Amino acid sequence: MLTSVIGFFAGILSGMGIGGGMVLIPALCIFAGVSQKEAQAINLFYFIPTAIAALFVHIKNKNVKFYEALPLILGGVPFCFFGARLALYLSGKTLSRLFAVFIFCFGVSDVLKSAKKILEERKKSAK
Is 46 exposed, middle or buried (0-12, 13-18, 19+ CB in 10 A)? Predict the structure, then answer.
């Protein structure tokens, strides 16, 4: 039951394109007692059907720019194998720390973008 609730919230984020793994991995580790490596592997397996479902909706709504996605795919797929191999050699603790740094950097970036947008809106309204 708990894993279904975790999957529910991660699915909502995945559908928005935000990244359900940001919820799924920590939730599995904290609430379901899953190791970091297992949580990351589950996340990868979970990603396939949720990404297909979200992609179908976004293609239908013409939100996908294939000419922009193709270079990302061509650059990402080969290095995905490298990252997967690297993860096999890193300890769960190291993977957990790297994931925490990633989430922190993502959060800082998001806060800075929001702050910039707020400042720009204030400048426009002050004129």
Answer: buried
